[in-house]
Amino acid sequence: MESARYGEIGPGVLSRLTAAVYRYLVLGVFLAVSGLPTVVFWSLLSPQPANAVLFVAALAPVAPALSAALYAQRAWAAEPDLKPAKPLVRGLRLNTRDTLAWWIPMLALNAVLAVNILFADAVPGGELLRPVCAVLMAAAAVWSGHLLVVSSFFSFRFRDVLRVAAAEFFLSWKATLGILALLVVATATVLLSSEALLLLLGWVFCAWLWAAVRPVVADVTERFTVRD
């Protein structure tokens, strides 16, 4: 049974450590390739408020790549082997359509919020509008983390994906705080350094994200699915 559990990796500490390093090396390359179009597009845009919508639109490939990364990390834990790219590709193939179904509207919402924040001074009451939009943007980003989990691991109807993710926003509050902390660190990395550094460290952020949302997967399974 022990040999079946570890498959071709083996039960030794060194072999398991080497396999883990190899998996996350592959994950890092996958995320770098997936995120490269976004970073390149950003580098071509001048940092002007008028380009806010384009900056947000360039994030379109991000959610499918993160979904595949979450899917793969759970697969690696369930079936250890030396083919880490297979679950990444499978997760991307299975989850891209379901992920984009909510990700594109979420990007549109965030584009509107970003424009409101950047141009708040041009309208009466802008001083109040800016913090409200900032809070809504942060809430939408954290909700997106829960949507990512639900659409990556469960086959619910679209409206149920939205409802379950909204429920988990409050039910799994520790995961919500973990997602928020991850977003804060990622944003600080971009602002204080560069998008390229975030791209290179993508595997670290995905490992952190998986650690934060594993309780969400368990809770959704327990509350919203029927066991045979």
Please tell me how large the radius of gyration is: 19 Å
Helix/strand order, N-terminal first: HHHHHHHHHH
| Shape summary | globular
* Beta strands, count: 0
- Output the structural class: mainly alpha
Major sheet details: none
Proportion in helices: over 70%
SS element count, helices = 10
Low-confidence stretches: none
User: What's the mean pLDDT score?
Assistant: 90
End-to-end separation: 25 Å
Proportion in β-strands: under 5%
Produce the secondary structure layout.
Blueprint: H1 2-6, H2 13-44, H3 52-57, H4 62-78, H5 85-118, H6 126-153, H7 158-171, H8 173-192, H9 195-200, H10 202-224
Helix pairs in contact: 2-4, 4-5, 4-6, 4-10, 5-6, 6-7, 6-8, 6-10, 8-10
Describe the fold and architecture.
The mean pLDDT is 90. With 228 residues, the protein is mainly α. Helix 4 (62-78) runs parallel beside helix 6 (126-153) and helix 5 (85-118) runs antiparallel to helix 6 (126-153). It starts with a helix and ends with a helix. The chain contains ten helices and no strands. It is globular, with a radius of gyration of 19 Å.
